[in-house]
């Protein structure tokens, strides 16, 4: 949690003795008496890469979005952790990751699955302190990295793109089958080659910080 965008606020919270709770699976954050504001750090689930068939190209998936922002709370809040996009087999587009949410108050979107030509949009629509790394396209590119969080996966050759980073690393593309991203990393997976498969995207995670 040391991104150049997030580190100053995170450091100030810790210096002032903030309490925190980590969620690696869905659950409920219980509001302490008198707490009206929290900071939340959310990581969406990563997408899965596409798979080439024959001479077709294949792109890596986007990593899950990272969002860090203050939220006003009036009661307990349901935390939902986004699943990683399911592995893709045999060819075609990858699968999107699931959103990680803090009730209806904040959302980190799941990463988009890869397609067969390029990353599925050219730039992330930025939220407040929101980050989403693109998967590598089919033009000899690896996935994007997010400094302080994770590294993008490498391309396998000029037609297979690597996966985008998130709260952890994206995975490399492969001329056979790419690997799964780590649990709770939000990482996107690289493309798979020639009718094989791409790995599943990494699930998301969430942190809540507050002062008592």
UniProtKB/TrEMBL annotation:
What InterPro entries does its record include? Gly_rich_dom
UniProt feature, compositional bias: Low complexity: 171-184
Q: Quote the biased-composition stretches of kind Gly residues, using this chain's numbering.
A: 160-170, 185-203
- Domain (Glycine-rich) ranges: 28-209
Q: Where are the stretches annotated Disordered?
A: 160-203
- What's a Pfam family this protein contains? Gly_rich_2
Name of the featured protein: Glycine-rich domain-containing protein
